[in-house]
C-alpha cells in the first residue's frame, strides 16, 4: 500500500487529477484542519467555517479532472477558501468594513504569503487558547515560554512548588494539543 503522506503537493495534485481517491484523502487530511482554522479566524463562526472548507473540497472532488495549479496546492486551497469568505462578506454587506481594516489584500500565489497567513492565524489561535487558560496556568505558561524562566525560577516568583509549576505546564501543553490539534501544536513548538 502506497504511503501518500510522503508525496509532495505537486505529486498529489497530479494524482488527484487522475481520480486517485487516496490522493484526494491525503490532500483533505493535510489541509482540512488548517483551512478550517483560517476560515474560522476570518468568519468567527464555526458552522460557516466548516461549510466553506467543505464547499472547497466538494468543488475539488467534483472538478478534479480540471484541477490545475500554478503555485501550490495549499495556495490554491487558501485562495479558494478566501474567495468563499469574500462571498459571505459580500452577502452580509460587511465587505466595506473588512476592506477598511486593510486585511483584504493577499498575494495568494506567493508561497511566503501563504506561510505568513498560516503563521499569523495559528499564532492568533494559540494566543486565544492561552488567554482562555485558568489564570495560574496562564501565568506559569507565559513565564516559561515568553520570559524563558525555569520551573525553579517560576516557583520562586509565584511562591508555589516546582511540582505545581510542572503540573501547570503539562496541563497547558495538553490543553493546547487537544484544542488545536497535534500538527498545529508541533508546528508552534518548533517555531518557538
Automatic annotation (TrEMBL):
Which InterPro entries does the UniProt record give? RNA_pol_sigma-70-like, RNA_pol_sigma-70_dom, RNA_pol_sigma70_bacteroid, RNA_pol_sigma70_r2, RNA_pol_sigma70_r4_t2, RNA_pol_sigma_r2, RNA_pol_sigma_r3/r4-like, Tscrpt_reg_LuxR_C
> What name does UniProt use for this protein?
RNA polymerase sigma-70 factor
Q: Where is the RNA polymerase sigma factor 70 region 4 type domain?
A: 124-176
Keywords from the named record: Sigma factor, Transcription, Transcription regulation
- Domain RNA polymerase sigma-70 region, by residue range, is 28-93
Q: Which family does it belong to?
A: Belongs to the sigma-70 factor family. ECF subfamily.
SUPFAM superfamilies registered for this protein in UniProt: Sigma2 domain of RNA polymerase sigma factors (SSF88946), Sigma3 and sigma4 domains of RNA polymerase sigma factors (SSF88659)
Q: Which Gene3D superfamilies match?
A: 1.10.1740.10, Winged helix-like DNA-binding domain superfamily/Winged helix DNA-binding domain
Task: Give the domain of life.
Answer: Bacteria
What's one Pfam family the UniProt record gives for this protein?
Sigma70_r4_2
What CDD domains is this protein classified in? Answer: Sigma70_r4 (cd06171)
Amino acid at each position: 500500500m502506497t504511503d501518500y503522506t510522503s508525496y509532495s503537493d505537486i505529486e498529489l495534485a497530479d494524482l488527484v487529477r487522475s481520480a486517485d481517491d487516496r490522493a484526494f484523502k491525503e490532500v483533505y487530511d493535510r489541509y482540512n484542519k488548517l483551512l478550517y482554522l483560517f476560515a474560522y479566524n476570518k468568519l468567527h463562526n464555526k458552522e460557516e467555517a466548516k461549510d466553506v472548507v467543505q464547499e472547497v473540497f466538494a468543488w475539488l472532488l467534483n472538478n478534479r479532472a480540471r484541477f490545475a495549479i500554478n503555485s501550490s496546492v495549499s495556495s490554491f486551497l487558501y485562495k479558494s477558501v478566501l474567495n468563499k469568505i469574500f462571498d459571505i462578506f459580500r452577502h452580509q454587506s460587511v465587505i466595506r468594513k473588512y476592506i477598511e481594516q486593510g486585511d483584504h489584500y493577499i498575494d495568494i500565489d506567493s508561497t511566503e504569503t501563504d506561510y505568513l497567513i498560516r503563521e499569523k492565524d495559528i499564532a492568533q489561535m494559540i494566543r486565544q487558547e492561552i488567554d482562555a487558560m485558568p489564570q495560574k496556568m496562564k501565568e506559569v505558561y507565559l513565564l516559561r515560554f515568553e520570559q524563558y524562566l525555569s520551573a525553579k525560577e517560576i516557583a520562586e516568583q509565584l511562591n508555589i512548588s516546582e511540582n505545581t509549576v510542572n503540573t501547570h505546564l503539562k496541563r497547558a501543553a495538553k490543553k493546547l494539543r487537544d484544542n488545536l490539534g497535534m500538527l498545529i501544536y508541533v508546528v508552534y513548538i518548533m517555531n518557538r
